[in-house]
């Protein structure tokens, strides 16, 4: 499996509040996580950095107990992901409560473990995970945002949600409350498939079909093509305004 990730401050922000990590374990098992901090000047960059570190540390501990997660059932891997989110939430919340300068901070989180052909994913907030398979793209994660709630209730169409001035209002964030509820997903990734994790700095400007077209050209035998896909997506978001920080991780099976 090939992988590449990149983050960019964009065109409008002075500080990059996005963070990401990719970890390769033995046996071609991969961990990827993207966090997008919220809280403006009140520590959004701190929240995302801490959440990435804590989440990765917890996954490392889980993998150390079960190398390459070998022999673990899907629910066991979801338990490890859940612990990662819980511990990240606990630490971000603790810091926000103990430091007035960080009060109100939080972060989105989308992460996955790819083990063989199985993909186990978790998300909080509106950072997203997509799968590009057989010339199609589908969103794996589910946005925790106000407009997505209205769409789910049938009070807003997906097209209306895209142009709503409330589209960046999230309903869940790691560290915003004492506890947080995450959503979990399982899918398969076969040879030739690609996975994309990204912050909303990308999806605010680039349509899923455009992500599909750019990532669809990635070859799992060409490391340069994975990097080029990430850089092309970020460049396109910046060309269209770059109104937020932009982070993209591409995994090619």
What keyword list fits this structure?
253 residues, alpha+beta, Phosphatase 2c, domain 1, 6-stranded antiparallel β-sheet, 5-stranded antiparallel β-sheet, 7 helices, 11 strands
How would you explain this protein's 3D organization?
- There is one protein chain.
- The protein is α+β, with helices and mostly antiparallel strands.
- It has a single domain (2-136, 173-252), classed as PPM-type phosphatase domain (Phosphatase 2c, domain 1), CATH 3.60.40.10.
- 35% of the residues lie in helices and 27% in strands.
- The chain is built from 7 helices and 11 strands.
- It has helices spanning 44-65, 74-98, 146-152, 158-163, 200-203, 208-215, 223-239; strands at 2-8, 18-25, 29-38, 106-107, 109-115, 118-124, 128-133, 136-139, 183-188, 194-198, 246-252.
- The strands form 2 sheets. Strands 2, 3, 4, 5, 6 and 9 form a 6-stranded antiparallel sheet that branches. It has a 5-stranded antiparallel sheet with strand order 1-11-10-7-8.
- A hairpin with a 2-residue loop joins strand 5 and strand 6.
- Helix 1 (44-65) packs antiparallel against helix 2 (74-98).
- The longest helix has 25 residues, at 74-98.
- It is globular, with a radius of gyration of 17 Å.
Question: How is this fold's topology laid out?
Answer:
Elements: E1 2-8, E2 18-25, E3 29-38, H1 44-65, H2 74-98, E4 106-107, E5 109-115, E6 118-124, E7 128-133, E8 136-139, H3 146-152, H4 158-163, E9 183-188, E10 194-198, H5 200-203, H6 208-215, H7 223-239, E11 246-252
Helix pairs in contact: 1-2
